[in-house]
């Protein structure tokens, strides 16, 4: 994504070590949560929202 990570920011979400570390929900989950089922739970919510929306 263009513009990320931002070069001059105090926001830790824009640090270069994060770039590409979670290209999918499941890969992101192991860095974002201590729950081993976070990725699946998040995907289940996404699917539920998509089914509701469309």
Task: Report on the architecture of this protein.
The chain has 2 helices and no strands. The chain has a domain at 25-54. It is 44% helix and 0% strand. With 54 residues, the protein is an all-alpha fold. The protein starts with 24 loop residues before the first helix and ends with a helix.
The average pLDDT score comes to 80
- Anisotropy-based shape: extended
- Contiguous runs where pLDDT drops below 50 for at least 5 residues: none
Strand content: under 5%
Helix content: 40-55%
User: What is the distance, rounded to the nearest whole angstrom, between the alpha carbons of the first and last residues?
Assistant: 27 Å
Q: Which structural class matches the secondary elements?
A: mainly alpha
Number of beta-strand segments: 0
How many DSSP helices?
A: 2
What radius of gyration results from the CA coordinates?
14 Å
Main sheet makeup: none
SSE series = HH
List keywords for this structure.
single chain; 54 residues; mainly alpha; 2 helices; extended
SSE map:
Blueprint: H1 25-32, H2 38-53
Helix pairs in contact: 1-2
Summary of the model, kept short:
The protein is an all-alpha fold and 54 residues long. It is 44% helix and 0% strand. The chain has a domain at 25-54.
